[in-house]
Amino acid sequence: MTKKGFTLIEVLIYIGVFIFISTVIVSLIISIMDTSRRVSPVNALSRTAVSSFEAITRTIRGAEQIDVSTGAFDTTRFYLEDGVIKISENGVYTGPLSASDATVTALTFSVATSTKYNLVSIDITATAGAGENQKTETFSTAVRTRVDN
Fold first, then answer.
1. What pLDDT tens digit does each residue of the chain (149 aa) get?
2. What is the dihedral of CA 43, 44, 47, 52, to 10 degrees?
3. What dihedral angle (degrees, nearest 10) is formed by the CA atoms of 42, 107, 100, 93?
4. 35 occurs within a structural domain
5. What is the pTM assigned to this prediction?
6. Is residue 80 a part of any domain in this protein?
7. For residue 2, is it within any domain?
8. How many structural domains are present in the chain?
9. CA distance 53 to 58
10. Is residue 125, in this structure, part of any structural domain at all?
11. Residue 39 structural domain
């Protein structure tokens, strides 16, 4: 006579293996979520810096004249409002430059001029995340433009 089914010991071993594998998988998922939560603010800061710098440097390189004051209405203007870097062209708001999941706390332009070129330094300080995962970082770049003689 043959018996079909599992013995109690086999069932206990299967349950033990299942619990062990489940514990490893749950631990791995928790670890991935924690890493994602810590990395997310850094990614938001990087996106804000890259997208803002790309638009600003492209505009500055093509500019005929650089003015870091409030500017006239026939210009492209970059400004900080409510934690967002914004752009307006000829006095018309065209949209935000910074990422929505980061708050920009400072936007600074400075110009050094010479007879051959202008050097525009740009500093952006931004904050992302909350609580213990909050990150604040300052990004800097410089753009060189030619001066027409």
1. 567 878 889 999 999 999 999 999 999 999 999 888 888 888 889 888 898 999 888 888 877 777 766 555 457 888 899 999 999 888 888 889 888 889 999 999 888 887 778 888 999 999 998 888 889 999 999 998 866 54
2. -150
3. -160
4. yes
5. 0.72
6. yes
7. no
8. 1
9. 8
10. yes
11. 8-146
